Each structure stands twice: as C-alpha cells, then as structure tokens.
Amino acid sequence: MTIPTTGSVLVVGGGIAGIQASLDLADSGYRVVLAEQSSAIGGVMSQLDKTFPTNDCSMCIISPKLVEAGRHLNIDLFTMTDVQSIAGEAGNFTATLRQRPRFIDMERCTACGECSKVCPIDVPNDFDQDLGSRKAAFKRYPQAMPSAYTIEKKGTAPCKAACPANPSFQGCIALMARGKYKEAFELFRSEHPFPGICGRVCHHPCETACTRTRVDAPVSIMALHRFLADWARQNGVTFIPEKKEAKTEKVAVVGSGPAGLACAYFLAIEGYAVTVFEKHATLGGMLSLGIPAYRLPREIIDEEIDVLRELGVDFQTGVELGTDTTIGKLREQGYKAFFMAIGSLECKVLGIEGEEIEGVWPGMDYLLRTNLGEKIELGDRVAVIGGGNVAMDSVRTALRNGSTHPFIIYRRSEAEMPANAEEIEECREEGIEIMTLTNPVRVVETHGRVTAVECIRMQLGDPDDSGRRRPEPIAGSEFTIDVDAVVPAIGQESDWACLTDECACTLNDWGTMNVDPVTLQSDDADIFAGGDAVTGPKTVVEAIAAGKTAAESIRRYIVGEDLKAGRETPLVPVEDVDLSTAVLIARQSMPMAEPDGRKATFDEVQLGLDEAAVQQEVQRCLACGVCSECYQCVSACLAEAVCHDMTEQIHEINVGAVILAPGFAPFDPSIYQTYSYTAHPNVVTSLEFERILSASGPYSGHLVRPSDDRPPKKIAWLQCVGSRDLNACDNGYCSSVCCMYANKQAVIAKEHSDEELDAAIFFMDMRTFGKDFDKYANRAREDHGVRHIRSRIHSVFPAEDDRLRIVYATESGNNMEEQFDMVILSVGLAPNPDAVSLAGRLGVDLNHYQHAATRCLAPVSTNREGIFVCGAFQEPKDIPHSVMEASASAAAAGGMLSDSRWTLTRKRELPPELDVSDQAPRIGVFVCNCGINIGGVADVPAVRDYAAGLPHVVHVEDNLFTCSQDAQDHMKAIIQEKGINRVVVASCSPRTHEPLFQETIRDAGLNKYLFEMANIRDQNTWVHMNQPARATAKAKDLVRMAVAKAAHIVALHQVSLAITKTALVVGGGVAGMEAALGVADQGAEVVLVEKSTELGGVANLLNATWQGEPIAPYLARIIERVKTHPRIRLHTGTRVKRTTGSIGNFSTTLASMNGDQVETVVAHGATILATGGGEYKPDIYLYGSHPDVLTHLDMDAAVANGDKRLLLAKSVAFIQCVGSRDDKRPYCSKICCTHSLKSALAVKKLNPKKKVTILYRDIRSYGFREDLYKQARESGILFIRYEPENPPIVSTDAENHLLLDVTDHVLRMPVRLRPDLLVLATGVVPNANRELFELFKVPVNADGFLVEAHAKLRPVEFSSEGIYLAGLAHYPKPLEESIAQAQAAASRAMSLLSRDAIMVGGVVATVDSGKCAACLTCVRACPYDIPRVEEHSHAVIDPAQCHGCGTCVAECPGKAITLAHFTDDQLLAKIEALFLAA
Amino acid sequence: MTATAEPNILAFCCRYCSYAAADLAGSMRLDYPASVKVVQVPCTGRVDVIHLLKGLEAGADGIYVAG
C-alpha cells in the first residue's frame, strides 16, 4: 500500500521564479506555502527598471503577478521567513519555518505609511542598493506585496539594555535629532520618571555600554536626557502620563527615595491608590538627604516629585513605620501590598580607636543634617575617609561649609575608587587633596576633641572577591596628620525598626531583606522590597529600576497574575553594529561653573549642554537597534497595527514537495581595488544603476551621477565583473545576463538623457545569445550609437571633476585610456549565501560554484527526492528562463503529488446571488478616511454629505479604514439592511482594493460587478497634499463620477464551461515527449502526434549533453515511457489536419500520413506545440562538395562511430556562426559554441597532439559552460576571432586538401590553416510548419520561430489561451532547456486541465448580430485575434477567449459591439458627471 | 473652451500601465494639478472618438489618453 501524499508544496523564495511556481501549483490544485526572507515578494525583478529585449517596465509586468500571488486563496505567504529544516520523505515532508517578527500586524496594516512618516530613524535603503535612505518603519517598495509596512529592529540598543530602568535612549536621541524634544521627553518619562535627577547623578551604565565607545567615546546619554528635563522646565512643558482606569486597591510605599518614588509613579499610572510614608520631613530619601544641592538642585527633585502628586500619589511625611503606624495597622486599613524602600542611611563604623570622640562625624549623618538645614562647623582640616560618592559629597560639602582644607583618605588607589569619575575630577578642580593607599588606624584626641588621625601607608596585594586588589598595610609606615574633624564615609546600612512582629519577611546576614531577585517579593507575600534596603548602598538608577520592577510585581500580585511570567530573560543588547560608517564627531564636554566661584556655594556645578551641543552630540548615536523604540509609530497608527512586542515564530508545516527558488546575490565588487568601486561614488554596480534609472528610485528616474547629481555625458559599462574570473572571486562562470542588461541600460540611459549621451560597453565576448538578443545588441550599436569596445580592463582611476579614467588593453594588445563621468560595473549573479547555507541544512548538493547541482536531463531536480530547484540558484539565467523552470519545477512537484490534488485547497463558500436587475439603483457610498491619509487632507465628512445628495444614493457613511474587517462586516450588514444594490467606495486604488470590496459585496449577496470605486487617495490626497480645499473638491468630483457610472452598471454573469481534460501535444521530439509525460503524470489524458514514424526528433542525432550525460539511454527511456503510459495515446506518422474550438474545448482532426489517410477526431482542452527544429544545412565553406567538411551533427556521428578520418586527422578546425548571426538568420543559435567546445575537447581527448582551431566571433559559453571554454584553452585549442565582414575562406589545394584562410585579429595578419577536418558550427532552424501554425493561428516571427505571449513572463504560452509551446520551435536551445520548457508547458496546461470547468464571460465584448455588417474591422483590430466572421454570418467573439480590452468596440463602425462594464453609456455618464457643477 | 489658468484635463488611463503609474505618483507623493481627473479604461483601445468629443463638449479643456 502506498502512503497518500500531502497536497501542498513549500516554495522557498518569493522572486519571480518562486511566484510563478506558486501560482502554477495553486492554480492546479495544491496548497502553497511561499516562504520569503524579506518583508515582500518580488525579488530582484522588482528592483529592475526595464527588462530586455522588449524594454518593458519591470515593475509594470511583475506587479499583476505580485497581486495575484498575494491574494491567491491557496497561497499562504510567509514573509521574513527562512526554512530551518526539512524532515521526512518526498510526498510527506515536515518543514520547520522561522518567521522573524515584523512588528506590524499585517491583518490590520492598511499601508497608509503614517508609521514611516513619524519614524526618526534613517537607514540606507537596501531596495535602492543603499543609494538613498528609508525609515526603520518601511515598505520595501511602493507596490510591495504584502502591502504592509515592516519595522526593522535588530534588537535592544546596548544603552537601553544596560540601564536598569530600560528607557529607550536611542529613541530619545533619534527624536532629539529631529528637534522633537517634547516627544523625546515624553518617551523618556513614560519609562523612567526622573530625567532631571538621573540626568545629574546617575552612574550612567548606558554610557559604559554605548557602542560608540568602540569608535571614540560614548555618547553623552546622561547629559542628553538632562537636557530634555531642562528643556521641558524652561519651556513649561509638563508631561503627566495618562492614568489607566482607577482601581480601588490601596498600596503603601515605605520610604520616598528613588525606589519608593518610582514604584509609586508606576503604580499610580496603573490606577492604584498609592500612599508614600516618609519618616523625615523632606521627601526624596538619599536624593535630598544624601546628595548635596550643588550636584542635584532641590527644585529638580521637588518638581519631579510633583508629577507624582499630579498622578494622585498621597505623601505622608514625618510618619515612621514601626512607631507611628505598623504594617499590621495598614493592612487593617485596606492596604493590599507594601513596598519597603527604606534605603540605607545608617553609617557603618570604621572600627578604630577614638571613633566616639567629638569631632568625628559619620559622613551620611553629616550630609543628612546639612541637607536638613543644620549648620555644622567641622573646622579647617577635615579628613574624609572613603572613596565612594558619600565621601566625595562630604568632602565637597565641608569645603562649601567653610573648611579650608578638607581632604580624602582612601585605602586603595584611585582606580579602585567607587565614586563617579566626574566627581573625583571635580574634587581635584576644587583643590581637594585625595590621599590614596592610606588607611586610618587611630583617631587622636586632645582635651576630648579630635586633633589628628594616625594613618598607615598601604600597598595593593592580590585581587579580592570583588576583583579589586586587596589593600595591605606596610608595616612601620605609620604617620599622623593633624585634623580638626574626621568624617568616616565607608558605607551605610538600613534601619529595620519598621518591621514589626506581624511581618513574616526575613533579613540576611548583611542586614538587607531577602526577596526574590526577579519579583522583589519578600517571604511575606504582600510585602515587596527594593533599592538599597535589598542591595545595600547602590545607585539611584538601580533603585528606580527596583521601584519599577516592584510596581509590576505588585500589579500582578493584586490582579492575581503569575509574578514571574516573561520577566526572567534580560534584554539582550545588539552587538553587530556597522562601525565603518561612523563619522568622527568629538564628544561634547559638560560646561561647568568655575572652580573658584563654586567652592563657596551650593549652586549647581554642572551647567548642562546647550541645544547646539546637543544637536552635535545626538549625531554621534550609531542607532544600534535600527528601530529606536521611540514608539512614535504606535501613536501614529490609527489602525493599531504596530506591535513592538512581536516575537519570532516557529511554524511546522506538512508539505508533499519543496521548490527552492532562493535566487542569487548580486556580486559585490568591493573586493576589487582596481575598479575604484568603494572609493568613488560615480562607480556603481549595474543593480545600483537600475535603481538610478527607475522612476521610483533614489533620483526619481533622473539620470544623474551620485557625486554631484549632475547628468553624466559619458558612461562606461565594464563587463564580467565577478564573472568569468578565477583570480579574485572564484566566479569562473558566465552570468549569462550581463551583456544584455548592459546594452539595455545603455539604450535606456540614452533615452533618459536630454543631451547626447556617450555610452561605451567594455567587453570580452558579446554574449547576446537569447531570442531577439543579437538584434537588440545590434540596434544598440547601430541605431543608438552604443560603443562596443572589445577589451580587457586594466584599472579605473579617479580623475578630475569626479570623473574616472579607464585604462584598458585592446584586443591587439595596445594600451588605451579614456575618461568617463560614470562607470557601471556589470556585476555577475553570485551565489546567495543564505541559499548556500539553506542547501547545507537541507542536504541539497551544490556544484563547485555553490549553485544547486543539477543534471541536464533532469534540470529542476536536486539530489534529494521531492526537492526541486529553479531560477538563478540553479544557474545564472534571465527572467524567462527562470519563469520557465519555475513552471517546470511546479510540474515536477505536481507530478509527484497528483493523488492529493485538491485535497488541501480552500474554496470560498458564497451565498446565492440576489437578482436586482429589475430594481432601480439604490447606491451606498462609503468614503474612507484611510486613517489620516485621506481625512487628513480632504474634508471627508463634507465629501460624505455631498454624496448623500447625489442621484440614487440611499446611504452614505465614512470609515476610518473602509478595508478593515469590522468596516467590511458593517458594509455587508448595511447592504442587506438598506437594500443597497450598487456600492461605491471612495478610497485608495481599485488596483489593490477592488477585489477585496467585490468579495465583500458578493458575500452580501450582490453580484461583484455592482461595484465602483473612486480613487481619492492615490490619485487625490496623496498628490494634492498641500491643497486641501482642491483635494476635497476633486474627491467630490470623483465620487460624483463613480456614482454616475454606478447608476448604469449591471450584474455580469460568468458561465461555467466544462473542460476536456486532455492535452494534444504536437511533436514527438524530446520537448513533445517531456510535455506529454508531464501532463500524463499529473493525471490528464494526452494525445501525442508525431508526423514522422519515429519518436525522438533531433535528439536521436546527439551524443551527450554538455555535462557529458549520454543521451541515447535517456531517449530510449522516455520513448518507452511514452509508448507504455496508460494516459498517452500515440499517433506517429500522423499530421494535424484541422482544429477548431477554444480554451478548454478544442476539436482537432488528425490524419495518418500513410496511404489510407485515416482521420481521427480528438477532443482536447489544451494544445502544446513542440514541433521542433533541426540543423541548418549550409551551402558555403565547401559543405557538401568536400567530404572533410562536416556539420555539428556530422561531427557528433563521427565521434560516436569512431570515424577513421577523425582518428587520423592531425588538425581539425571549427568555424562558428555558420548560418547564424548573418543577414538571413540574424539570431544566435545559442548551442553552437558549447557544441564546438565539446567536440573540440573530444578531439583533444583522442590525442592531445592533434591541432584544434576554433574560428569564432564571440565565444558564447554561457553559465557553467564557461568551464568547457576554460578546459579548451588549457588543452591548447587555438581560438582565432574573425569579423563577419572578413569571414574565413575555405578552399582546396592541388591535392584537394582543405585550406582555411582567416585574418587573426590579435596578430592582425592573414593566417592559413590546413585542417584535415573542418567542422561547421551550423545554426538551428525551426522545422517547416507554416501550415500547421496557421491552422492553430499562432504567430511566427521573421525567423520562423513561434512567438510566445510575452517574452518575459509568459514564455511557454501563446496569447490565444489554452495553447502552449516548447522546444526548438520556440528558439534554439540546448536539451536541458527544452526539457525544462516542455515541463513548464505541461505545468501551464495543467493549471487548466486540473479543473473540471472554467468560468468565462464577465468583462468581455459581445456582438449585436443585428447591427453587425461583417466588415471584419473587429477581426483586424483585435490584438488577440479572437473575433471570427464565418461566411454569410456576423462577427462572433468567444467569451472564453476575449481579453476584454475593448479595442473592437471602439473600432466597430456600426457600433455593433459592446464591452460589458465599460459600455458607452457607463463611460459617458462618468465623463459628463465630471463637468456637472459640484 | 474655458480660459482658466489651470485647464480641466480628462485623462483616460489604461488600467495596466498609466493608471498604475498614476497610483505610483501617489505612492511617491508627487504633485500635479488637481484639475486632472483620471478615468480608468481596460485598455486605451477602448477609448472611442465619442468619449473624446463628449468630454470636450461637457467642458474638458484637454483630453489625455495614456496607455
């Protein structure tokens, strides 16, 4: 028994290949998970300006695909996602996806862009290749899908992570840099209540952690937030945080130091009734009792405490817990929780003799009394003992109180002093002596008063537990200093008299309270503690953080939440910051009061930075986190979509198959010194140049050079940068697309230039090998004057006036140089490092170039069964080839999973449709504010009210966001409630939102065509932002026009057309057989027609693929499969005689080509034409008249048969481009260079001494085939280039031996060769099938090849729907590409044949037979060749085929044709309505 | 034809290209006169002479067909 497969596929990579694979699979019955690493799909194609060879706008052609993939019911889009692992087997895989947070809820985001507008962070715009900048809140590009913003956040900035209170410093700085001081102040205060206090006395761990330290010196973060507080004071700005709903629970905070105040602040914001009990008369604890006013002015403390009063905090001073009241009593009074923040104000003793003598003042006691207003005379000479801030404060206070010689005694060295460095420095400035490595051993008295202190010298020994070196006394070094007072300031402890018996909390050996380190909860559940009372003497900000932590714990405790959940992991600072771009700016120094003047007063010493200094300082921030967490976006987003708490998600999904389409990375030329790329702004990569040319790019499509924004007059393109190069980058392969894109860019650049632009392409071989590519390159050169310079670049040097001097060698070896205004580096398609690591995780083999290893005969299969590959990850290639492979990989995946098709797909359930055809119009108008995108410019209520007065309008309303889910639900209800039968939405663009609103009205029972939109955002308020009155008037005009048309619109009904689930494949070569097998393996029936009696076509004549895989066994295998496949009916020796019908239902008559001409009629839903091609048979170079002149295929036969001539030949020559790239066949046959290299190597393999010469024009060994070219050169094969004007001449000598004359371009002289064998690299010609193509009415180009629907995005189908193509009939191509194209055609056919029926009709043209004069105008006008006029009849337009363009309608002289939904009366109603006065 | 400083322009734009371009102008916050009004058509091929004439008759100072 076989295990059923899983009917879904994981597609990795959202570039054009991934999108196409997803669409094919989703359209043919599979659920698709599309995983994309970036925030939007579109890949590199969305970055391109134009595409070759049609010069189509890249965005214009990819955009409909983006929308289709983004909205597809069966494509689940996972952006910002990478694949971690894939377990299981083909058919049933389990994939683990890691989705990084977007920080914006995509369901809510309306892409209005308000978040981006307020975002203060500028980062290089990666979409524009870093040429411009974007915000941290951004949308990858205007048309990005999903149409939602993203916030780029690397993580927490180190300053924020290092500060115990975690305020968003980076956010404050970013806002300050934009002059948004108020917003910055509010941001700070919402996370930290005391910017003014901490801005003065903090020990600033933020600055210690600042990344800028790694460049020069940290950003002055403390001074910056002090500036905010000062700015707010000076400008009268207060910010009282918004209080949440008031709660009934009361909380008591004991102690009004920084910990207690912070806790009270945050609990008050939460809505709790908070009382702060303070035993002293003054609030502030250590802030006001310990720290002197010259460091922290009292009004700063008072004003910041006033904010708490505003928040409703009750302060009770002079109340001592344990004495005046107790916790027990407070519990009785209804207090639900307690925060013990009693600080540590009790001084530790020195423990030396004489400490009790008069004149010894414990430091804290001295400061406290002084700060409470007491005047204490210490005398002139004051020894302050200790190295912490209390010691510094004491000694400086003594100085200000009149002591002439206060000084510090400290037992360690200065490096170990715990005081702030600033304060030590300020002591010095004030003339205070610091005696280090000195320890007091005895206080000396005279008459009961201190007169001296005896000290001992110390030295530093080994480090102790704290890591500091332990001070040790030096024996015998005692000495005595005369002093008037001694102030010991060596530490403090807490006074726990407040803890009475009813408290169950416990103290530890250090006299601090035991609490949980995360929650600060004590052993008594309702008692919490923090600050110095828990940690011992620490810093202000640590106390504030403790208060903040306790507030959260108490909130949780009161509401009954888990106290610990989500709090245990600390913030992780960002480490990976790019320092290379940091501009050196000196750290601003803090202005200070003059030391002489300040010594006598308690006036503030540090004066604060002024605004000019602040603006300098903020520029120093490196924006480590990218997003600064300033939260401006949160308030700007009216849709409430911003969520800064989003976290990474891991998804485990079950899929049957996997398609890898991770694309490539543009080669980074920074590693080359020679191109001056990093050193010069006017040297750009080709992808950068695409962005320069793009209308939505950094220069709005103006061609200017980056150095000075001036239009360049001369531009050079340098080819093969990062391709065909083994020295610097190991990309030995050819990137295949660069020659074409350089020509395209040169042509487009010339179009962009007002003045004549000189464009020169420096190249080695011009590799324009694709369909219509050579013609394009020739036109570029001949019609547009693009110079093609065959050369080798030596170097690019900067020259005067921002120009560049290119030094190069010509083909003949001459050194030349020329100056240009700009240099474009045509960079190659390098392997994508993420794809390489993905392949490693998945066990997918890579080749030696780090691209997916595949075989020519299975071009989209990897080594791991069930994992397929497509696009540039497989090999560098252009867009159509990627799209083709994408479809091929979809066919391969679909073939494996056909048993589970439609098992996991979703289907929309719809209510029955109401018939409103006999009702008069009842129009509902919904006007959208789009947040403030519309409403902020136009007067939306006025527009709404205006709409109410328009004819037939029965309901009007305006919505904040009409597209939001609630607005949609409301719309459905109101349609039903008011009997609305036409809906008008005035909002954004129908391009993005019409399908959504149509779905909504359909859910309400209305036909989806009873809908009309007025584009009042994209085409009104966004383009007339500065003219609100005119925008309002225009909005009214647009609404009036929409309503006028709405009154004329009618329901349109599509009809279901059953499908014949059979494909007719014409052509039994490899392409035809692979297409037939692709369809049949996926479960549909196939009729395969081949006019000859044998299958295999031209492949029968080939030996091996370029990779060396033998073709014969492969061919035998697929012929056997075709012959025995139960779903393939084979008709050899048969031709197509007639065909009729349209998509889904064709009828084709086949006729056998033997005598009896038996006819068979086949009904089929799809047709695949794979009619093949063959070798051009030349009539030049003595072919056919001299036996030793062979074609490619003759040579293949000779190699296969071991032809004697080949074995005996001493010299073999090849002539390239025989029958290609000439006047008759102006196309490159693509395969010949590779074929000749392969044959030439085969000759060398027979005997390396054989002389082999290849005469060529350009060697076009594209992609990895370049390896063959390298091998050929290494093996001594000689290459001689010739010009078409001067082709080789083949003649014979008297003995009829071949003579080959050619002019060698390097030697510049004629060369005569005497080859024993001459191989002509003959081109490919399509098989002659003109009549057949006419039967199917498919177009053929001048060269006889079939013309696909679109050169880029529809490479395997015709514009007539239901007909597909593959193989040599389309264009010359190697076997691997024919196989991929055939599989692609099968995939496209299956997106049709996998269904039971298709819906046809809707917006299509219909003919009024009574009016039709059968004049054939419509037949001639239709770009899709759809209208038919049968004899003696009228025109017929098949609704299944009509594209709805309306060209026939406009052209019809009898007005016999109408286009539904765009009828004349509808359009005229709209036009006339525009000019009716509003 | 009315002689206004800012002529009333009626623009017929193809839904695939020029209408999308007009939306892009919005995304990029470009500025153009508010007197330009766009009517979306499925293809500029749908634009008939009658639409141009009626537009001019109704009051357009100029008509712009872009596709």
Describe this structure as you would to a colleague.
The complex is a heterodimer of chains A (1478) and B (67). Chain A has 1478 residues and is α/β, with parallel strands linked by helices. In chain A, 29% of the residues lie in helices and 22% in strands. Chain A has 42 helices and 66 strands. In chain A, the strands form 20 sheets. In chain A, strands 30-36-31-32-33-34-35 form a 7-stranded mixed sheet. Chain A has a 5-stranded parallel sheet with strand order 5-2-1-28-38. In chain A, helix 1 (16-27) crosses helix 2 (58-71), helix 1 packs parallel to helix 26 (879-896) and helix 26 packs across helix 32. The two termini of chain A are 73 Å apart. The mean pLDDT of chain A is 94. Chain B has a 3-stranded parallel sheet, with helices on both faces. The termini of chain B are far apart. In chain B, strand 1, helix 1 and strand 2 form a beta-alpha-beta unit. Chain B is of the alpha/beta class. The model of chain B has no long low-confidence stretch (mean pLDDT 90). Chain B has helices spanning 18-27, 49-58; strands at residues 9-14, 36-41, 62-66. Chain B is built from 2 helices and 3 strands, in the order E-H-E-H-E. Chain A binds chain B through residues 57, 60, 63-64, 142-143, 695-696, 700, 989-991, 1015, 1017-1020, 1022-1027, 1030-1031, 1033-1034, 1037-1038, 1041, 1403, 1421, 1423, 1444-1447, 1449-1451, 1459, 1462, 1464, 1467-1468, 1470-1472, 1474-1475, and chain B through 8, 10, 15-17, 19-32, 34, 37-43, 45-51, 54-55, 58-60.
Short account of what is shown:
The complex is a heterodimer of chains A (1478) and B (67). Chain A is of the alpha/beta class.
Give structural attributes.
heterodimer; A: 1478 residues; 42 helices; B: 3-stranded parallel sheet; 2 helices; 30% helix
